[in-house]
Write a structure and sequence with these properties.
Number of strands: 3
Low-confidence stretches: 1-7, 74-81
């Protein structure tokens, strides 16, 4: 009986492969291979090199027809330094718009702060003007009260003067009514 070294007599038919080998054979990446192993519940065991080996049925080692060979992500780059440079370039490509956005936001923040300071100064000036206006109104009220008191005093004096004038008119009318002889006699007696 001819037994392949990849298949033991106790195991079902298949081949023991690492996750990386499974990914390469199917044209998928390693995380996809891990999900496939969990989904299909294939048997796993650690190898002597510390890598996990999976017993894969022979018909499952064929490439996935839905994955193009250039879509494979498990193929290592030719030069690792190019990968680091590419990563740096990608980071710079993403970071530069963020830096530009931050610069624009800083300018907007500075403008907003300037407007806020101007508004605060304007508000303080308006408050000062309002306080001065209130003080002026209060002073005008005091003047108006003084003028009202003077007006009332003047009106009272005018009434007294009118009453005195009316009294003099009545007295003069009474004197004239007495006749000339009586007026002369009263004048001689000092009345």
């Amino acid at each position: 009986m001819d037994v392949s070294p990849d298949i033991s007599t106790d195991d079902p038919p298949g081949r023991w492969v690492t996750l990386a080998e499974l990914a390469a054979a199917r044209g998928i990446d390693v995380p996809s291979a891990q999900r496939l192993v969990r989904r299909r519940q294939w048997r796993r065991q650690p190898g002597n090199d510390g890598k996990i080996r999976v017993l894969v049925p022979p018909d499952e080692l064929k490439p996935n027809p839905n994955v193009r060979p250039d879509d494979r992500t498990d193929v290592p780059p030719d030069r690792p330094s190019d990968t680091i440079a590419d990563i740096r370039a990608d980071i710079m490509e993403v970071a530069q718009p963020l830096r530009d956005a931050i610069a624009v936001l800083r300018v907007q923040l500075d403008e907003a702060n300037t407007r806020t300071v101007r508004a605060d100064v304007h508000a303080e000036q308006s408050e000062a003007r309002a306080m001065r206006a209130e003080e002026a109104v209060a002073a005008e009220r005091v003047r108006a009260d003084v003028l009202r008191d003077r007006l009332e005093s003047a009106q009272a004096e005018l009434r007294r003067a009118q009453e005195g004038a009316e009294a003099l008119r009545r007295a003069e009318a009474e004197r004239r009514a007495r006749g000339r002889l009586r007026r002369t006699w009263d004048g001689w007696r000092g009345r």
